[in-house]
Amino acid sequence: MPNTFAYVVLFSWPIVVMVLFRKLPIPQALAWSIVGGFLLLPTRAALNLPMVPALDKNTVPVIMAALMCVIYAQSAAVAPGARLGAMARSAPGDSPPQAGSPVAPGFQKRSWGDTLILLLVVVMLVAPFLTFLQNREPVFAGPIVLPGLRLYDALSSSGNTLLTILPFLLARRFLATAVNHRVLLIVITIAAIAYAFLVLWEWRMSPRLNIWVYGFFPHSWVQHIRGGGFRPVVFLEHGLAVGLFLASAVVAACSLWRMRVKDDRLGFLWPWAAAWIAIALLLSRNVGAAMLMVLVAPLALVATRRIGVALAAIVAIIVLLYPMLRSNGWVPIQTIVDVSTWVSEERVGSLVFRMENEELLLDRASEKPIAGWGGYSRGRVHHEETGRDLAITDGLWIIRKSSAGWVGYIAMFGLLTLPIVLLWRVSRKKEIEMSTVGLMLIMAVALLYTIPNAFLGPVYWLMAGALAGHYRLLAAQVVDNPGRSNSTVRLQDSMSLPSSLGQR
């Protein structure tokens, strides 16, 4: 159980958020509020009230950041360049600071792609009610009776869903420009530089920080003993979540290094940051995250923007269609197992075990393909006589497919993948800045990570929302300026778009 200090830290975070919004422009404050809360707040400490989503590390920072965004966006008008400093210096082709409205020119106009994104938001909020309507009967598993869903469950699930996607909506509004994408990359990199010290400490001394600070261990201790050593956890829910964040930060640092912004006082830091965070990741015994880093980080350094955008879009499409590919046997399972044997023989058994469980869960999910089984473990596989749970759910995709069906799956993964695909489509007419490409590559890493794991916190919803907002801006510019060359559009954009949506 969390100690008293864990609750003190959790419910003191709104004060931290208020200070951040008082001292920083909205984009920086929003990024630090979400990223800082994700990395530092305790996982199990929560306040559970009737008919209200739990107030925990994922919801407290988001709710407070949303409130501050509403308050400060009302008075968003500053002198050009005020309080941006080095963190918000623009890359070549990015937009200069501009006073006035926090909404970029043309931001009110809506393309078909942006309409589709908003439709997915609505479907994601409505999906729990469809699941409720199809799952009101109890499920009998031997001596165990799993209750049917109630209207209360649908309302609660919809409320939790709203808080889950709230970072997406905030970023779509306040982190839509390429300059703000760079701000987000910098926040992630600087946070990871500091976090790497804690990671390396736990690598050497064992994952005890969460126990010492908050009085509990967030997961199974056995799962964090690897290769004769330890897999760090720090203050996240699992060591695998640490691996994903570090891999994301390496790609972020490589993207910043690649940009080579003139007069960037932190420019010297990025290659060293990439190396430092990569060392922490390689020592943290996160094989999957390390492999993704090795594959994607070089793309951020050497690949052209068009190639980076295209590869991110290909990954997004594959992940969106993965349940269909998996169900029809189009995923090369044996090839994946063979490659895993070459990388780490001791992990092959775990991989095969996961895939066997996925087969069981897919068969179960096929019984309610449209809206899924809902909660209370109704979608899990139980022994007919004893009621014992026979399958372990690891991947986010199978958890979502089982609990919410195709409707819920397409809504969730559509919001995570569609902005990438839409940006790829619009990139044929508008060149995508390197800061945006960096976010797209990080999202590709995170999406691939959701296939075997279920760790996707508010930081990644923030990135997806930033990409969705950027597509909205670019699509509006393409509609306003049909037939013009890419260079002409970029030249005019550099004179018209504000560097920071909602800066004060």
Write up what this structure looks like.
With 504 residues, the protein is mostly helical. It has one domain (4-324, 397-496). 62% of the residues lie in helices and 3% in strands. It has 18 helices and six strands. The strands form three sheets. It has a two-stranded antiparallel sheet. Strands 3-4 form a two-stranded antiparallel sheet. A hairpin with a 2-residue loop joins strand 1 and strand 2 (52-55). It is globular.
Name some characteristics of this structure.
504 residues, 18 helices, two-stranded antiparallel sheet
TL;DR?
This protein is mostly helical and 504 residues long. It has one domain (4-324, 397-496).
Q: Summarize the amount of helix as a percent range.
A: 55-70%
Largest sheet: 2 strands, antiparallel
- The geometry reads as globular
Please state roughly what percent of the residues sit in beta strands, choosing from under 5%, 5-15%, 15-25%, 25-35%, 35-45% or over 45%.
Answer: under 5%
Provide the succession of SSEs: HHEEHHEEHHHEEHHHHHHHHHHH
Mean pLDDT: 85
Side-by-side strand order of the widest sheet: 1-2
Q: What is the straight-line distance between the termini?
A: 41 Å
Poorly predicted tracts of residues: 77-107, 484-504
The figure for the number of domains is 1
Tally of alpha and pi helices: 18
Radius of gyration: 22 Å
Derived from helix and strand composition plus strand pairing, the structural class reads: mainly alpha
Question: What is the strand tally?
Answer: 6
